[in-house]
Amino acid sequence: KAGLLLALLGGTPPVTSGLEALSGNTIRSNSHVLVVGDPGMGKSQMLLAVSQISSRSIYVGGNTATTTGLTVSLTKEAGGEVGIEAGALVLADQGVCCIDEFDKMAKSNQDGLLEAMEQQQISIAKAGIVASLPARCSIVAAANPKHGNYNMGKTVAENLNMSTPILSRFDLVFILRDRADIDEDKRISHNIMGLYKNEHACLPGDSGGTNGIHSSLQYSGNKVPEGIAERLDWVQGFQKDALPANVLRDYIAYAREYCKPKLTTDAAKVLKDYFMRLRYSPNRNDNVPITTRQLEALIRLSQARAKACLRDYVLKEDAQDVIELMSQSVNEVHTDEHGQLDKTRGGAGGKSKRKEKQAFLEELRRFSEQENRSEFSMDDMRVVAEVV
């Protein structure tokens, strides 16, 4: 939920000049979030909540969406002229586009999102019309694993049967697994039963939501936990009522419009050190295959974290909260079925151990056919491994 809130707030668009300003191409300031999980984990409910809270949002289903429906389509007018009709991404300009059932979308339709997710625009060259339309929106997508339950023995791309260029454009990837937890199940069942027993008191737009604000003032003297996960649990312990939806919508719209946070030197140093620590670990096998795209994602999320407090500058604490979120996302993506971190699972060419074994056996079989022998030495095995 914290990651979805940062996606709603967005970052600060950099000031451009010269040819970039004339062409309309800017470095994107919107964050994209992907939620992957087992069925029944409430992914669609989170997407609906995001679309309702955002001042401008489009909600589409991946199983019924096409490339032209997401981007741009051409129509013939009565006089024989050709007109342009905007798709979901163009209509969600400066807002949020929620895509449910992202895994059901055909790969040919997913490729239509590549330009919009990175360049924040959609180019069209059809029927004598050459144009570029703005699509400066955040994409929040939810997907189910292709075999029902999420298999930790496979990478995210293998679980979703999705191309890696799309996955690399998501700033945050969260994996929701349906695991048996007594405390968590008690809390969820209590909330569900409370919704049906006292329906009006649980509506997000109810005026009773202000009770939690007075409670937070009462507990303001206590020491606030440092980590964002402990802090969210600490707030949840005494702020029982949700903030009214209309207040939250106006707050986010105000923050997006008037708050333009800038990076401070301390925050920039924290983000840079974290990026370098991930990319160049002391143990060479622990390196995470990330690029500068993830560094830009850290900057955008830090600016969104400062917007949540209506600040004009990104503080060191904002950068530390974002690093905790990014670390959780990176760890979930790189954790294998044994609960250990496998740093080779991410990046553009990430593979699970099972895929690597299959590739090694295929290369060994090809080497056997070329050499016309069935016995190999350790040196031969090392040569084949280097090829793979």
Write a concise synopsis of the structure shown:
With 388 residues, this protein is α/β, with parallel strands linked by helices.
Give keywords.
two-stranded antiparallel sheet, 388 residues, alpha/beta, 46% helix, 11 strands, single chain, five-stranded parallel β-sheet
Explained architecture:
By secondary structure, the protein is of the alpha/beta class. Helices cover 46% and strands 13% of the residues. The protein is built from 18 helices and 11 strands. Strands 2-5-8-1-9 form a 5-stranded parallel beta sheet. It has a two-stranded antiparallel sheet with strand order 3-4. The protein has a two-stranded antiparallel sheet with strand order 6-7. The radius of gyration is 24 Å and the shape is globular.
* Order of strands across the main sheet: 2-5-8-1-9
Helix content: 40-55%
Q: What is the tally of beta strands?
A: 11
Report the structural category.
alpha/beta
How is the main sheet built? 5 strands, parallel
